[in-house]
Design goal:
The structure holds 2 protein chains of 2 kinds.
Chain A: H1 2-34, H2 56-63, H3 65-97, H4 103-111, H5 118-128, H6 135-142, H7 157-181, H8 186-194, H9 199-227, H10 231-236, H11 248-257, H12 261-286
Chain B: H1 3-42, H2 46-49, H3 64-72, H4 75-106, H5 112-121, H6 127-140, H7 147-151, H8 158-169, H9 173-181, H10 186-194, H11 199-215, H12 218-223, H13 232-241, H14 248-268, H15 270-281
The chains are: A mainly alpha, B mainly alpha.
Chain lengths: ~290, ~280
Amino acid sequence: MRRRQAIAAWVLALPFVVLFAVFTAWPVISSLFMSFTDLRSTDIQTPFATNFVGFDNYVNVLGDPLFGKVAFNTLLYVVVGVPLTMVLALAAAVGLNSIAWLRGFFRVGYYLPVVTSIVAVAVVWRFLLQPESGLINQVLGFIGIDGPDWLNSTTFALPSLIVMAAWRNLGTLMVIFLAGLQTVPREMHEAAEVDGAGRWQRFRYVTIPMLRPTLLFGAVITGIGYLQFFEEPFVMTQGGPLDSTRSVAFYIYDQFGFGNYSFAAAASYVLFIAVVALTAAQFRLLGERR
Amino acid sequence: MTERGRRRRDSDGLQSRAWLYVVLALGLILMVVPFIWMLVSSVKPEREIRRSPPTWVPETVTVDNYQQLFDRLDFPTYFFNSTLVATVVTIGNVVFCSMLGYALAKLDFPGKRVIFTLVLGTLMVPGMVTFVPLFVLVSNMGLTNTFPGLFLPFLVGPFGVFLMRQFFLGLPDELIQAARVDGAGELRIFWNVMLPLCGPALATLAILTFLASWNNFLWPLVVAQTEDKYTLPVALALVSIGQNATQYGLLLAGAVVVVLPMLAVFLALQRYFVQGVAMTGIK
């Protein structure tokens, strides 16, 4: 009986396990191996002709001034992008949670950008951000502000991308927060109200503490996402102007494009370590605390 | 509470509710204006697109931009490729992830803990880590610029297993035991008893997988090397950074063609999207 169950389970598991081993697990391991060799695109047919070079790639990645620049940009994407997206999503979720009429309608609207292709979104936003004929600068001009050439400015290109990313991602977080808000018992709000707590106090001392696990989850997935920021600069600015929007993931992609496979692998593991570190930090900061 | 006090509170509530709707509506406008602007501008002639001040209602409505898209750029082929790849990827995920999800939730077997830990562990691995070796692997298999090269790496994923396992855990064990007493084999129980109960979860997984594959961009960009293998986002990206980069009419029409199918699917099936996010987001 036990045995039959085990055999059936393995029959069910096998297709997934094989595909997963070949296309996910093996690449993760071989990337680690690769990062300690001098593999380049030209060695792809003869992988055994490559040499073991120890930590050279890692030393070179960390010593590259361009890597410092893209790491700083990525840090900005995370420390500005995550709070901005979280606050907007939480505001939208709390707003939607306190209305009944048209709630579904608003939820659909706020979620809409999530389902759209980043490439199409980039086309539209580049059009909106055009210096002269773009809608944003036209509206700004209407109220007397002379809008900049957003995407060609080393000052405004990165903030533009962050705002666009927040616009695109807040729908996912909003739905997660909405589900979390529904688990906050109504009685707790009523009790707090009887005790004389105002709306803000109830939000601060009832909603936020009850929502802590959900907020943590949201911060973790958003943080992991922004650390890997790639598609937005790739399709909006090609990393420019002057690398001011280039991210770590973009840097890795460039190195892959140049054929520096082992170097790219080492940089990708640096990013991996950053993801693990950020996640651990968020668990410590936002996790169980009384 | 006195009668007067209550009345004052009610009218306060009404007023603040009205304000809430105003704020939410303003937010909604900010969220959807890019799409409306995309649609409106895509049916304008190039000259009107660049006009300042802009026209909210097109003075001249034209399908020129769409015509060019389909004549010059072979968008039907890209559309077919995107659909094909997304369909295969979706079938793979629905079938294989529900199989493993069931085994992990309801059966005992050696290696169960290891598989679950490994699969969950990869949720944190950045896509860039597997990107380079995956490309080397696919090239060595001779699969660059082929359809299998486009879909094989995405046939299974941790998200699907996580979702299906979670759903199966919520189904009662008694069903399985009753079927066993009736003499049904384990695979039969999975296929005939348990899987038919998974409709909502399977629909959610199918829709979210199809969406992710349809919008996937980086992998097809490096694997598809000739035009007959391009997917829609790849084609649109190459047009938008190529020599047509300033032809906004053409680009916006392309964006509409890429976005509209998913928008339609989303509007028709939106409760499954919300369910999917909520199901995997919480717990």
